[in-house]
C-alpha cells in the first residue's frame, strides 16, 4: 500500500474534481512548486493510486432518461453460475456497473436506458432470458443530489 501524506490527498481531491486541470493550476491550488507537484502526480500514477482519467458524461444529453439500480439474486451459488452471469452482463450495454456484493443477493447493477419502455425490453429480453437469475429488484433513480463517480 502506498503511504499518502496530506499533500498527496490534496492533489487527489483536486484531480478527482477536475482531472483536466493543468499542472500549474494544480500546483497553485495545493501550494507546491510546479515541478514538485508534477513529481507527486507521476509518483501517484506509477503507484497505481491514480488509475486513469475519465470524462464525466451527461446521461440526458446521451439519450439516457432512465437509470436504475438492480439487486440480482442467483438460483445457484456456484462459480459457474456467477461467471455465466458476469459474462452476460458484460455484453449488455445497458449495464454500466456490476458489483458482486454481500447480503441477500449476489449482485448490484447500475442500468441506463433511454426510457421505461427500453428498460422493460432489457429487463424482459436480456435479464429474463438468463437461466441463472432467481430474483431481480429494481430501484429507479429519481434524482442524484450527490454523485462523485468519475
What distinguishing features does this structure have?
single chain, 150 residues, alpha+beta, Alpha-Beta Plaits, elongated
Question: Would you write up a description of this structure?
Answer:
By secondary structure, the chain is of the alpha+beta class. The protein has 2 domains: 6-46, Winged helix-like DNA-binding domain superfamily/Winged helix DNA-binding domain (Arc Repressor Mutant, subunit A), CATH 1.10.10.10; 59-140, Alpha-Beta Plaits (2-Layer Sandwich). Helix content is 37%, strand content 20%. The protein has 5 helices and 4 strands; from the N terminus they run αααβαββαβ. The chain has helices at residues 6-17, 23-29, 34-46, 79-91, 116-126, and strands spanning 66-74, 95-100, 107-113, 133-140. It has a 4-stranded antiparallel β-sheet with strand order 2-3-1-4. α2 packs across α3 (34-46). The longest helix is centred in the N-terminal third of the chain and has 13 residues, at 34-46. The two termini are 22 Å apart.
Amino acid at each position: 500500500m502506498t503511504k499518502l501524506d496530506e499533500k498527496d490527498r490534496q492533489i487527489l481531491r483536486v484531480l478527482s474534481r477536475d482531472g483536466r486541470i493543468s499542472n500549474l493550476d494544480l500546483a497553485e491550488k495545493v501550494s507546491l512548486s510546479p515541478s514538485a507537484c508534477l513529481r507527486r502526480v507521476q509518483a501517484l500514477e506509477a503507484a497505481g493510486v491514480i488509475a486513469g482519467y475519465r470524462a464525466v458524461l451527461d446521461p440526458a444529453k446521451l439519450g439516457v432518461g432512465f437509470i436504475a439500480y438492480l439487486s440480482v439474486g442467483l438460483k445457484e451459488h456456484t462459480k459457474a453460475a456467477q461467471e455465466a452471469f458476469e459474462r452476460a452482463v458484460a455484453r449488455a450495454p445497458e449495464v454500466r456497473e456490476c458489483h458482486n456484493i454481500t447480503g441477500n443477493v449476489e449482485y448490484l447493477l447500475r442500468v441506463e436506458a433511454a426510457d421505461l419502455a427500453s428498460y422493460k425490453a432489457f429487463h424482459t429480453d436480456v435479464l429474463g432470458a438468463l437461466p441463472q437469475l432467481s430474483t431481480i429488484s429494481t430501484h429507479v433513480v429519481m434524482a442524484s443530489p450527490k454523485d462523485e463517480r468519475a
